[in-house]
Specification:
Three copies of one chain form a homotrimer. With about 160 residues, chain A is mostly helical. The first copy, chain A, has six helices and no strands. Chains A, B, C: GO terms for molecular function: glutathione transferase activity.
């Protein structure tokens, strides 16, 4: 099976695919960070949702008071969900875009702007920055994804 | 690197991969539309969740009254989450299915039914249509994904 | 187009890609099961969120009392969302990892541990098992994904 193995290696040697792999991994790692930020706020603000998570605080009413929502925790969770809603389309459409023969420089531009927009979006959401910071950074990532989708459909359309 | 570039192009020349690229992009764009519908209802119904989003309505109690949930906004958000829960499996399993040597006509049938079912599901959720419209359209998309998963495991199983 | 078709077939002949296809499909099917578990609890506990879902229970107040949240339903939904947050990164990073020329045995180790951790996480969440069962199984899947991301970036980094 050395033949096929070589072919898989060749794909990762393609610059466009490498760029996609790099930026897709970066935005996914950024999204994964939201889990750690949520955990950090749940622990420091003592705001949990599962009874079994408060067992170490004792029993009965003593533990029950930590089963509550906290604005900071909820804010991170909304940012996390917004990541899912926007990074999933980027993952799928971006992969197909990488196979639709874009110019390397154009592809890099799309990937870099998307990743930058989502990182800014995260800061805008968590600090939070005044609007329209969050709205604009969201819109930029959205527009980049639509632009890649247009290229995919133009190249591959097969209904 | 012209060699590998050519290979990437060849993939998008494959009819099954093109069909997958087309329908995956369509359902992802449809899912992305849910963000715009949510924003539309948040603005028209004046129902926001982040304090910084209501700053333009003034300060204090005047802005605070727009920090509220609205049934229409919540309905769109549930439709959006249901999309995530069902389109993510389609994206992953569908891509692997495209590589499992299905008949082109069979693959098209799967992709078309899934995309159609999810579009009907969206209308059934947002209008809303009486049940079992939403339940059935959900089940059809679910069954199509399970059928593709069966083909993937039959072809590729390597534990 | 026989040439390209053959190439698609060759990909599924690669052992690492087959292992990825197998484990990605397994964790996605597991995630899809959460929808059925949610539906099961919604029906058995009579706890719905959409008015059109309770129409069969009659009209007015009689149906309205079933529009409520139930702790068991909410627990399954949290498990489902946690799956999305963790399985989406695995899908994307795992696919790129499969193309980054890992050793087959190393790749299998990553895929098997991730799938096992997510299955344990589901049981830990739904039964529920006392902590740190859920926390640990979550962390193991998280660490495996970070390990694959490291390999992808080491192999493919192209900023």
């Amino acid at each position: 099976k050395t033949g096929e193995m070589a072919k898989l290696t060749q794909l990762i040697d393609n610059d466009i695919f490498r760029a996609y792999a790099t930026y897709a991994t970066i935005v996914l790692l950024k999204m994964m960070l939201m889990s750690l930020v949520t955990a950090y706020f749940r622990i420091t603000k003592k705001a949990f949702v599962n009874p079994e998570d408060t067992a170490s605080f004792g029993k009965g009413e003593n533990a029950k008071k930590y089963l509550r929502t906290d604005p900071d925790v909820e804010r991170v969770r909304r940012g996390h969900l917004n990541d899912l809603e926007n990074i999933v389309p980027f993952l799928g459409i971006g992969l197909l875009y990488a196979f639709s023969s874009p110019e390397l420089s154009t592809a890099l531009l799309h990937f870099r702007i998307f990743a930058g927009a989502r990182i800014i979006h995260t800061f805008a959401y968590l600090i939070p920055l005044p609007q329209p910071s969050r709205g604009l950074s969201w819109a930029v990532g959205y527009a980049v994804t639509v632009s890649m989708a247009y290229k995919v459909l133009k190249t591959a359309l097969y209904l």
